[in-house]
Write a structure and sequence with these properties.
Order of helices and strands: HHHHEEEE
Number of strands: 4
Number of domains: 1
Strand content: 5-15%
Mean pLDDT: 83
Number of helices: 4
Structural class: alpha+beta
Length: about 170
Amino acid sequence: MDNSWDNSAASTPKGPGKFRGALVTAAVIALSLVAFGAVWGLWFSNNQARLLDAERERARPDWASAALIVEGLRTEAGTRALFQANPKLGAHFRSEQEFLEVAARWRPSLEPLPRELPRAEDQVFGHRHGFGLGPTILSYRMPKGSWITLQWDGPYDAPARQLTQIECAP
């Protein structure tokens, strides 16, 4: 080692030592990610049922509304009243007459909704809400296989909430 003030070349590892340092750093990062994933996985598996139950409770008022809507769609008078009570449906249907015709095609595949809200894990039911910022969407697969999807312009407790879209797929 010389007596100059610049000794940086002497302290820089050369050869396999530099590679080992990078390898150790990569291993520490990889183990940290695995540990984080394991902790998150344990937390999620322990709280999944609680999270699904909370979502199910948020969907309960919408489920009651959906049951009334499906019941109304099963008759022409109910369908007409539904369209008149929800003018925003006009964005998807050009006229009341068109809505009545489309709903008449849906009728054979519509079944009454169960009184009890299905469990999300049964894969027959989906609910998404915008926490007051966006639409609420509820989908349900009926026992004979047809799907109905309803969309409202806000959450259940929004003032003057309206149904904005209905889709039914046999």
